Write the structure tokens for this entry.
Amino acid sequence: MIAKRAKLIETATRLFHERGFWDTPTALIAREAGVANGTLFNYFPSKAALVEAVYLGLKQSWAVHLQAAAPQSGSVHDRLAGYWLGAIDWARAHPDRHALLGQLKLSDEIGEGARADGVDMFAATLELIGEAMTSGVIRPIDPGLLKTLAEAQVGAAIQFLTTHPESPVDEIARTSFEIFWRGIALAPSGD
Amino acid sequence: MIAKRAKLIETATRLFHERGFWDTPTALIAREAGVANGTLFNYFPSKAALVEAVYLGLKQSWAVHLQAAAPQSGSVHDRLAGYWLGAIDWARAHPDRHALLGQLKLSDEIGEGARADGVDMFAATLELIGEAMTSGVIRPIDPGLLKTLAEAQVGAAIQFLTTHPESPVDEIARTSFEIFWRGIALAPSGD
DNA sequence: CCTGCAATTGACTGATCAGTCAGTCACCCC
DNA sequence: GGGGTGACTGACTGATCAGTCAATTGCAGG
């Protein structure tokens, strides 16, 4: 049953968020997922492997949402904005998942392999940036740096929205994007 | 002996970075600090309290460095740049401490109290931002949002430098700042 | 030299948990 | 229906660790 593996990941995701993943025993995950303790270890060789699966699952869920939200055509500005708003959208819809993702990313539990797996999920944005740079829309800056900065900026906007729930989501999202865009664009944006 | 408490914090900081703080038993911390197991609990009521002390210690060390590095006068641009470069400087000088700080900030181990304690360490930057906004140098944006974005951007630059050790530190630092500055400045910066 | 006190010690406890494994069970094919 | 297969079970183990506490040490003041 493939569903059992998925159920374990789903349950673990929920419990990791509720209790922190260091305080979530594998026995509890198994029980809440409706399987025996030992069964968990039929699907995952170790707790670390389960944590990694949770991490990849979250990242993929985000990437899928992002891909769906972003317009496939239009100006670089608009397409990048689409990714930006889509990313914030997902995080707002799943604040628990986003928080967990942030913790997992930094944890020592996640191996290099899994972390790298996540990298190309955002390959499309990287391509878009490269394209925009050669066509002279944005400044020539190391694309890797740009991507890191962009991700951090998105994360910061989400963090702000989380700690200030009364803020207007859409406005904050757009403001954060425009700040970034003005920072990297060669031509002044028409604001 | 006040030195014993400091020694415990210092040792814990090192071990937390080397092994991750979930895999660092209190017994080991005590032994490496040259005191008995029980003595640790004379100075800290629990492991969590020790972790919190480590967190505050790191944050303070950073804040002190920052305060020393930033120019007290000059244009807003230059003073903000001073903070920016100073922050990156500290992180480059103590990559282990910076990494640990990032982990601790997100961990559930850190209580609200300790996290809030850290907030006003960067009060000076917040003031500077507010000042600049009223004097019309930068765009009117929620100062809290701006501060969050700035911190994230600094963190991203540091992260990039960590994962790309061969990169020119100073150039990356300045580039990341200029991107941010262009994003928030009203008047075009003279680049 | 003694007394009292606070700091220090480290063996110990009680609890927790990741991971194991011998056995059960459901299902499929002959 | 029977026997072979592999998913599943859950009690158990071995190890780890935070935190305790009775005993000891070292020291200051008389």
